[in-house]
Design brief:
Radius of gyration: 13 Å
Shape: globular
Order of helices and strands: HEEEHEHH
Helix content: 40-55%
Strand content: 15-25%
Distance between the termini: 41 Å
Number of helices: 4
Strand order of the largest sheet: 3-2-1-4
Number of strands: 4
Amino acid sequence: MSVSRKKAQEYAERLMSRPSSALALVLRRTTSGVTLLHKGRAVTRCYNTKVGQAQAREMAVALGVELPGVGSSVAATVPNGAFYRAIAISSLPLDLPEARLLLERYQEEAAMARTQGEAMET
């Protein structure tokens, strides 16, 4: 049985309350949607709807990875800033025009966080 979006986001909120330099995540795609995992636990879900598919694509961009095919997963290690933005994107109502402005801002901030995270690693 899969974890509800509400339970997943409760876990994400706990992770965000204890910041670390980076989080190891897995983006998993199934026929029912896309789940973002941390240490095997769901932190957010995007259902297999038109809006959910758009959220999943944009979440993958924020994480700096390609959205995997159905039945596949992709790993990413990202700084907290990119993680925060990916979680926010997974909840945006992308069917509303107003959400596009927020999406653009979140993507810019996620890219900046990933770039700064890479600089810290070198």
